[in-house]
């Protein structure tokens, strides 16, 4: 572990008590935030890194549903998959992030990987092998948002590097669906504006977030003011060599690499829509 980046005094990553605390949060809400995970003296460097990378993002406005799936006329008319929203966030791909960047060093750090595995109750995790989505910087510019959606991955590790001046809140509905049930009525209720089950996080630059986004509907609300919202997403998998599908990769980055030949649905852990 590089103690110049992570505040190891506050977060000794090999401490069983810290792992137990994170696991308890994940059991309770599917989410755990470690405020000030990055040392205070590095937060400005983290911001500057994100600002320098942001112009490399692929911007493409899409009309999507919560499952990021194509319209399926076989589904009932009231199915939430028919509810369309505009997705306006952008991504800087891994191959456009310098190898010596702080977020690259964190992503490949074995101590961080062991901590992530322990936190999610896994024997081991591996840095996602995908040459584009293995590590990304998510950019949401003012006036844009990342609308309600579910993740394809079971778990996500992210690090806020720059907060918006206003808006840009991370909001989620913990455990709104399970590996056995889509719970369509509850999903539709959120899309209709019922936010009774919605939780909102006050994230700050340098905060690490561990999140079970496959089963929790979530979004980044519209960004307001004159500053982008930047988040590094550190992608890991249960096994080595995992890459994304060509279809999804092209949606996010406008291009694919030779590695993107994985069949749709490969590696799924359940039979949910995504």
TrEMBL record:
Query: Which superkingdom heads the taxonomic lineage of this protein's source?
Result: Bacteria
Coiled-coil positions are none
The residues covered by the Fe2OG dioxygenase domain are 130-240
Which Gene Ontology molecular-function terms are recorded?
Answer: metal ion binding; oxidoreductase activity
Pfam families per UniProt: HalD (PF23169)
| Gene3D superfamilies documented for this protein | q2cbj1_9rhob like domain
Q: What is this protein called?
A: Fe2OG dioxygenase domain-containing protein
Q: Which organism is it from?
A: Pseudonocardia halophobica
């Amino acid at each position: 572990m590089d103690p110049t980046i992570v505040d190891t005094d506050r977060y000794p990553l090999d401490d069983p008590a810290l792992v137990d605390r994170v696991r308890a949060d994940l059991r309770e809400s599917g989410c755990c935030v470690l405020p000030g995970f990055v040392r205070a003296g590095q937060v400005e460097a983290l911001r500057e890194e994100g600002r320098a990378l942001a112009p490399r993002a692929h911007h493409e406005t899409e009309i999507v549903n919560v499952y990021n799936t194509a319209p399926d006329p076989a589904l009932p008319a009231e199915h939430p998959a028919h509810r369309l929203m505009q997705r306006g966030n952008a991504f800087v791909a891994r191959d456009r992030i310098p190898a010596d960047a702080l977020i690259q060093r964190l992503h490949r750090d074995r101590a961080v990987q062991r901590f992530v595995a322990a936190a999610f109750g896994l024997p081991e995790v591996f840095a996602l092998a995908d040459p584009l989505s293995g590590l990304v910087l998510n950019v949401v510019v003012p006036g844009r948002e990342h609308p309600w959606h579910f993740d394809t991955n079971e778990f996500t590790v992210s690090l806020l590097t720059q907060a918006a001046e206003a808006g840009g809140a991370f909001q989620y509905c913990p455990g709104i669906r399970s590996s056995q049930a889509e719970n369509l009525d509850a999903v539709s209720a959120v899309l209709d504006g019922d936010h009774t089950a919605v939780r909102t996080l006050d994230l700050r630059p340098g905060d690490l977030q561990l999140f079970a986004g496959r089963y929790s509907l979530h979004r980044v609300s519209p960004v307001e003011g004159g500053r982008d919202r930047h988040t590094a997403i550190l992608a890991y998998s249960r096994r080595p060599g995992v890459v994304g599908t060509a279809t999804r990769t092209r949606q996010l980055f406008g291009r694919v690499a030779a590695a993107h030949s994985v069949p749709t649905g490969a590696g799924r852990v359940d039979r949910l829509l995504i």
